[in-house]
Design brief:
The chain is an alpha/beta fold. The chain has helices spanning 7-17, 24-35, 39-55, 72-75, 90-98, 126-134, 149-162, 187-195, and strands at 57-58, 65-66, 80-87, 104-108, 140-143, 168-171, 198-199. The chain is elongated and about 65 Å long. The structure holds zinc ion.
Length: 200
């Protein structure tokens, strides 16, 4: 397709079009918006991307995003080290932390098992979780994945791997409507799901 835009603008549109949920039309709109920003604003926008990419990485323990080697939750002496709450994404940690009730540690998988999308155990941070559990000191692992097929499959898979280490494996109670996202569960619902967790 012939381009009607200068190369640099065309490139910018292509970059925006790479973002999830952004089609070609939206990408054009965003690119024009950026072009219309004062020069300093546009620069700080680009700098924010570079800085985030350079400083944010995963915690060596829980795999959550952090700018330190070990994240503040793993490093805190106030957290209960006998509990690990397993979540799919970093944003799920934020959802549970907002409730201010859970005081254990986390483990972020960075996805769930999905045969259809070719996401297998090696694509997730599952072996890191098994290492943590096998190192001892963990009494309970709480599976806090979305109550959909992929979340269920992932919970079952992990449960089978870690139960042999003698830990109690629980899952959230289904106060969360089936098929919904943890992210959208309100704090009270999430809190009830956590309190009413059941053994797997
Ligand atoms: Zn951590």
């Amino acid at each position: 397709m012939a381009s009607f835009f200068p190369t640099a603008l065309e490139n910018l549109i292509d970059k925006f079009a790479m973002l999830p949920g952004i089609g070609k039309k939206s990408a054009q709109r965003l690119a024009f918006f950026v072009l219309g920003l004062p020069e300093g604003e546009a620069e700080s926008f680009a700098d924010a991307i570079i800085a985030a990419r350079a400083t944010v990485h995963t915690c060596v323990v829980c795999q959550n995003l952090t700018d330190a080697e070990i994240c503040p939750i793993c490093a805190s002496e106030k957290r209960d080290r006998s509990q690990i709450c397993v979540v799919a994404e970093p944003r799920d940690v934020a959802s549970i932390e907002r409730g201010r009730e859970y005081n254990g540690l986390y483990h972020v998988l960075h996805g769930v098992l999905s045969p259809l999308s070719h996401i297998g155990p090696d694509d997730l941070r599952i072996s890191e979780l098994v290492s943590r559990v096998s190192a001892g000191g963990v009494e309970e692992v709480i599976m806090a994945l979305n109550p959909d097929t992929e979340g269920e499959t992932t919970s079952m898979y992990i449960s089978r791997l870690i139960k042999p280490f003698g830990v109690k494996v629980t899952r959230l109670a289904y106060g969360i409507p089936v098929g919904s996202n943890l992210e959208f569960a309100d704090d009270a619902t999430l809190q009830r799901a956590l309190e009413g967790r059941v053994e797997m």
